[in-house]
Structures are given as C-alpha cells and as structure tokens.
From TrEMBL, chains A, B:
It comes from Streptomyces johnsoniae. Residues 337-348 have a biased composition (Polar residues). This is LacI family DNA-binding transcriptional regulator. It holds the Pfam family Peripla_BP_3. One of its GO terms (molecular function) is DNA binding.
Amino acid sequence: MPNGGQPTIVSIAARAGVSIASVSRVLNGQGARRDTVERVRRAAAELGYVPNAVARSLKDGRTRQLTFAMPDIGNPVYVAMVRAIQAVTKAAGYRLLLHSTDAVAEDELAVLHSLGDRTSDGLILCPIRITDEHIEALTTAAGPVVVIGSLPDGVPVDSVRADSVAGSAMAVAHLFRTGRRRIAFINGPSDTVPGRNRDLGYRTALTACGLPHDEALVVHTDFGIDSGAAAVRRLLPARPDALFCANDQLALGAAHALLARGVRIPEDIAVAGMDDSALAQAGWPPLTSVDLGSSTRGRRAAELLLDRLEARGGTGTAPPPRTTTAPPRLVVRASTAPATDSPVTRTA
Amino acid sequence: MPNGGQPTIVSIAARAGVSIASVSRVLNGQGARRDTVERVRRAAAELGYVPNAVARSLKDGRTRQLTFAMPDIGNPVYVAMVRAIQAVTKAAGYRLLLHSTDAVAEDELAVLHSLGDRTSDGLILCPIRITDEHIEALTTAAGPVVVIGSLPDGVPVDSVRADSVAGSAMAVAHLFRTGRRRIAFINGPSDTVPGRNRDLGYRTALTACGLPHDEALVVHTDFGIDSGAAAVRRLLPARPDALFCANDQLALGAAHALLARGVRIPEDIAVAGMDDSALAQAGWPPLTSVDLGSSTRGRRAAELLLDRLEARGGTGTAPPPRTTTAPPRLVVRASTAPATDSPVTRTA
DNA sequence: GTGAAAGCGCTAACAA
DNA sequence: TTGTTAGCGCTTTCAC
C-alpha cells in the first residue's frame, strides 16, 4: 500500500460493492438509492474514512488554507492579530498557516512568491518596510494578498493600516490635559514608517497644545524593555513631567527605571505607552496606552481576504483595492492620573 | 484556463519544446543535455513558474506541513511554544499550521481525526485534559502525534511534559529560604492535572520545610489577573507572608491587589508566580517565577515529531514512544527578596 | 441511479 | 538523454 494503509474511495467502493463515483456522490450528499447510500455510509464508517484534503485541493484548485506572515510571533501586537485572524478563518472553515519572517525583507518576498505554490488560497502580510521589490511582488502576486501596514497608492492590493499619527497625538493631548507640560518621547527607530508616524503625531500634538518642541525630550532607540530603561536615564536631566513611549515594552522599561530611583508615577512623572498589550495592564501602576487596534486590524484583514476569495467566481473584473484604517483608542489607566501638585511649577 | 493562468510544467514544456518529463527532471536537478537544461530554465523563469505544492503532495504523500493545536494563542505559555516550534519547523523546511482549540475537548478530538485528511504530516497537541476518547483517538491517529502534557502509560505516542510538581516545590522552598513561614497558595482549578500537580508540589515542599499545612492559606480559582486580585482579598485575613501563585497572571493580579492596599512587596509579603512569561518581568517589582520550560517543551516536541517523520521510511517497526520532561527553573527577581524585618515575628 | 473515464499538476518507471 | 505513460485521491461530466 503506497498510501500508508489509509482508506480511500477505492477501498470504500470495493467494500460497498459500488463504483467510486457513487462513493463520491454519497459522501458529498448527492442523490442515490437508499440502499446505496446506506452501504457506502457504513463502509466509510467501518473503515474510518477521512477524505484526502490534498487530492480534493488538487481537483478544485483551493486549499482552504490562509497564510499569515508577520515579523515575530513573540510580539504581543502580532499575537493579537493572529488571534483575531484565527477566529475569523476558523469560523469560515479555513486553516491558518503561520509564517514568522523574523523581520527579514527577503523572507517576506519569499512568502509572497510562494503564494504561487498554491499551498494557501491567500495571504495576510505584515511587512516591516515596503520596498520597491515588495511592490513588484505584491503587484504580480499569484493570489489575493492583504497587507497590514501602509501601502503607497496604486498598489493593487487591499490593506489595513493603523493610524499611529492620530494615536500618538491622542496620547500627547491626554498628557497635556492632565496637566503635563514637559512631555518627553521615547520613540523607536526613526527610519521606519511607524517611527516617523509616531514622531509626526507627537510634534503635531505639541504644536496643537501650544507646547515648544524640545529636542532634549526626545530619544530614539529600539523597542524592548531594556531600551526603555536606558532612555529614561538619558531623559531625566531634561526634567520631563511625562513620558510618552512608542510601545508598551518601552513604557514598562521606563516605568521600572523611574520606580527604581524613587520617582513616583504618576505624581512626579506620568507614563503612557502604546499598543495596549497585556503588558500595559500588567504594569504598576497600570499603564495608560493607545490601542492601535491590532485585533481589529487582524480581523479586518482576514475579512477582506475572505471577501476576495468569495468574489473570485463572481464578476470578471475584480473590485478595486480597499484600504481600511483602524481608529486608535486611548485606554486611560493609573499611570497618567493628573499630578496632585500644581503643574504650573513644572512649566519650563 | 481552469488553473487561474498559473504556469505548469505543461506550459513550460510547450514553451521549451520538450516533454513534461524533461521539465520535471531539469527542475529537480536531474541530468539533462546542457541545451535542454537551459531552455527549460529560461522558459520557467520567463513564465514565473512556481511548482504546485499540492500536486507534489498528492504524489509523494506528504505535505511538509505540521499542525500545532493548543487551547489559546492569547496565553503567553502557548505563544512561547509556538515560537519555539516555528523556529524548528522552519529550519527543517516545514510549514506550521496553527489551530486554536479554545480549550474545547471536542475540538482537540476533531484535530486528531483530521490528521486523516493528510493536510499535515504530523501533529503537536496540547490538550487541556486527557479523556478516554483522547486516548482512543491518539492510539488510532492517522499520523505521528506528539503530546505536550502528561499521558498515561501505554499510549503509543511521544510526549513532552512539564514538571510542575517539582516547579511548585522549588518556589515554595525558595520562599522558605528567604525567611517566609506563612506561604499562601493561589492555585488554578483543582480538577485539572496541572492544578493537582501544583498542589502536590506545594504540600510536599511545606512538609519538607517542616511547615504546617493551613487550609486557610490555599485558594482555588481560575487563571486570570482579576482572579488573582480577588484571591488576595480572601487570603489576607490569614496573614500570609508570602504568596505563591499558579501562574504569572494570578501573581500579577495578586501583586496589584497588595500594592493597592499599601502592602509592600517583598517587605511585607513576597510574591512568586509561575511560567516566567513576559508578564513576570513586566511586574513591579519584577516577579520571581518558575519557568516550566514552555519554550523547551515546544522545541522538544517539534524535534520529536520531525524525528518520527524521518524515521518513517526506515526500519519497519517504529521506535517505542518517548517521554521527555522539561526541568523547571526558578527565576528569582525582586518580588521575593528576603524580608528585612525578622521573619520570626510572623511565624504562626 | 450508476459506472466508466477524464483530468487537476506532478514524479518516476519504463521504453526508445 | 528523452518521451510516453501510469498513478497519487478525488470530483465531475457523460453515457447508459
């Protein structure tokens, strides 16, 4: 047995004394004589038959599998996305293939190309950066793709983006409203799209609040809890009364560094993070954070993709690419409660 | 074109003016005349050919896909496993199919049965509980399975387990060594294997330390940060000087509840958690935690599974099932630093 | 209502 | 070295 002993429609047909066509029909709920149905059903049950999904896929050209490719499954943001995507795909009867690109662009391109191997019916891609090669690969992709991230105009692909400009601005405005006037910013790398957007939101909000922009209050670093702590050491001489951090891990590291030197949160310095991951809630005091809608983006991306898959058999022309933006949401927690002592004494 | 316009070996053969067999050979690195090789290569490149993995799978009976099924991808423990598994499978050239069972036993059984559809070559299953049906399904599984969890003897399946008995005992012994004498225990549900094992470890360690076992110091609850906080309220009247929690989320919730009522950690009450997830590090003070080796277990499970897959073509008889136990590791952080005031005054 | 047969895309045995 | 062909397991005409 070249098959490993697994029953196939052939074994069932033999056992039931019918043709394989009848087996197929019965098993797919098509009409057949009562007697035939019964014999096939029984034979299948006795043999413990499970249809071979690979053969079926080859036949009808779809696998009922979807791929999600993201930089790192260790990051809470992507975990939230996986979770949301998983929920949608499962409900729709699709399996989910997970691919960690390790934030390597070539890996992302490889995933894009591998769409051609028909292993999955579609792809949700979360690229770290969009290069010309990405655009080329997206344009010529062998199947439907949804990008989670910001795409230049004209790329014929659905996308779901976060509004980190608005999100950053929300956080800064909130800190201002709670009486903070020297709002420092711990940002991620400045050469990434998210880094630039957060920076833009920060500056915009400062201006809107009528606050000066002080370079001494801004630090660029990489993400990660230790980086947050290190950044604090560099910022303290500038006497900030609030810390806005580009993600929760930075915020957490910053908070720890502050507490370790006896700085009170939020009485002396308020701290706000971004992503509203489990870490924000876990912090002490619990951290105010801006939810950029990872979950929403994941869900939406999955819905868009499924929608493309449905639409396939329909009208000849594919609908134009759609772009959704997930609105940010400020989650206020104890780490940014208004300072009890007069903020006026702190003003620069 | 029933195919969606994708090039196949037929299109390449036509373009290169050779037979499909030649195309296959060239593309699979078999010998051919220089001229033939070149023409096939070029045709394939021009057409942007990508081999159809489904067709290939049907041919050789393997998909190079592995499935990982666990209760909930939102849980840090499973995230750690996914990450480790992903790393191993990726290196071995396998794709990873993720399946969230939502902690529903029927879903676990369904996954087990669906191994028969040949969608993946093997399965790593992380069951919440092992029922007789599980054992039945595991015994008759259509492909290799590795279970992460404790399996009764005689089930012909590889497994990787955590040693939560030893892990719990380590935590308790550590608390004892740092001067604690009234060590409370916030455990998960008592009707689960992990719950029972942690309880056993707790009791064993108490006895080993010569401490009495006080029912008033033990609370059973479900996992989750809120449950931890609620448990603290129930425990405080019993005047504990240490809290051992069955996972990090409970510990975090407990810590928050303590801090909120002005109890100092670790001066007044020490807190230790379990799993050593990112949350433990995120807590304030950073939480001592017992690493039960989620990462190690994931990696090991993947290795065992791959090993089975390799072994397949080998000797007729399959090697006997193997069981690995991941050793627990105590990660000491600030939340259990020795109390500064004499522990003697606290003794019951 | 049922069976024979073609074909999805690929690999490999066999012939030439 | 190359081409023809069978076959992986299934669905689906097309005859009967």
